[in-house]
Fold:
Amino acid sequence: MNRITHRFQELRRAGRKALIPYITAGDPRPELTVPMLHALVAAGADIIELGVPFSDPMADGPVIQKACERALAQGTTPRRVLELVREFRQIDAQTPLVLMGYLNPIERMGHAAFVAAARDAGVDGVLTVDLPPEEAAEPIELMNAAGIAPIFLVAPTSSVERIRRTAQLARGYLYYVSLKGVTGSAALNVAEVAEKLATIRACTDLPLGVGFGIKDPPTAAAVARIADAVVVGSALVARMHELADDPERMRREVAAQIAAMRQAMDQASMPTAFAG
Amino acid sequence: MKAALRNPVDFSQFPDANGHFERYGGRFVAETLMEALHELNEAWRDCRGDPEFLAELDADLAHYVGRPSPLYYAERWSRQLGGARIYLKREDLNHTGAHKINNTVGQALLAKRMGKTRLIAETGAGQHGVASATVAARLGMECVVYMGAEDIQRQALNVYRMRLLGATVQPVTSGSRTLKDALNEALRDWVANVDDTFYMIGTVAGPHPYPLMVREFQAVIGREAREQMLTEYNALPDALVACVGGGSNAIGLFHPFLNDDTVAIYGVEAAGSGIDTGRHAATLCAGQPGVLHGNRTYLLDDEHGQITETHSVSAGLDYPGVGPEHAWLKDIGRAQYVAITDDEALQGFHDLTRAEGIIPALESSHALAYVTKLAPTMRPDQSIVVNLSGRGDKDIYTVAALEGIQL
Structure:
């Protein structure tokens, strides 16, 4: 079974929600990426989204754009990202890893070559931001054959019909973009998200992750009450950038951010019976 | 037995309903934009067949833009080159001095129909930005133009024009700080403000329906030119020449002639310092297929799929992608794409200025420079229509600086 599906089953049995940190591979430096991934897992990450840097990340806000620029300046090619995944897998065989990036670097490598290399490195899912399901027939087929989950976005503007079609093709989880905007935008509106998630749940049994605009433990906790997974990216990437000159402290503090979210989420999803 | 001839392509049938020109085009954007593109596509489909919308568009093109633009026989220049007769399609005489206004007038009318109150646009040289700010002023709409910080330095005159017209010029400091980054930033704005905002893309690139919609707004150039050739000179031209950055002026001229087999078609890209130097913007001549800015097309990228920086003396051609229809026309061989260096374009700029008393834009000068090569290979009873897509007033500082003259 795909590690992502397995992980969601474990969490469901334990009554917990998934915490999914995102970092850009190679930012601030490629040699810091794998230690950071292990630190995230130790702090309570259930799944990790690893960004594949691209020169023109049009769905990302300034924080992740700059992270891409730094990573590219350090020579972080898609093949280098896959080497980092392989290195991570030498120590961690359990934590699901999802690559998140844009289509052109994959096309340049070729879909078949990319999927084969990703499978060999130990990748569990691929989210290609600018590849909507209607253009994705070939990559979906290749990924399914390789046991890699094609992960797709659902937006506040997505119609019920689109959500249904997307959910049929998606594996692993659906990633709900919580607001109209790019990554790292202002805080999301939990009530609006809850309403949309109810609509999406009526269309699919896939776990639902929510991302964009989750910056702090209270928001993570609020989202954990209504979703199956909480994705946090820009808040971590921004902190990593601030502390890039002190890798030890960077790992410690970013891990602490994750630990605080983990704690807030676990408290939020505890059975209410204990409260009285 | 002879092999059956392949049925000729009916070019009016492309793109398909999802914006594909065979393998090119399409819609490659984040999910956050998909519904906005569907909404735009439906609004556009309603309008393109609506006599009232078309009448309003025609009236604006006639009275505001100044269409039809003349087809001018460049007699003296033709004689100097000693070959084909050369006709200039005078898009430089349009309001705001270039073909860009044909598209912004159309998109602004559509925006008004859709009830949008805010227009956003990207710009490289500033011509599309000026054309956007112009129609926004006329309709009393808010206008934000995204422009690379690098280009803002290079095109101070157009920045000031946009500000005079009431637009906000938003400097873009990400990436290479040029046109491609301005496009990224405009897309980000659109995602965040999709309810009240209309994104006016300035060329035949971007996700479907933009390549189709912009083509249809610009095809007035080719429709007029075709009719002018037939009524004034009784014949179709033997060749068409236009410069290609994103490719909107070129598609505008080419499209109405695509089904005319006898008309040869040449798109002229910017070879910058020379294709072999790596400092160029000749996407079709030197690039390969990939995905950028919402469509599959030729683009300039490195071996890892990262988009590379381009160079051209002309900011309007300085773009690492190209409209997907051009990519398709290249592959099926209906159009040929060639490249002209900065130096050759500058020579073309001077040639036309001295021969005909018309100062062309540096973008158009690439097409003119190719005409100086093509015309002498043709007979005097043959003819070339070249798209004079813009006037050169905006470029005189650039030209002067290159020649060491301080104005």
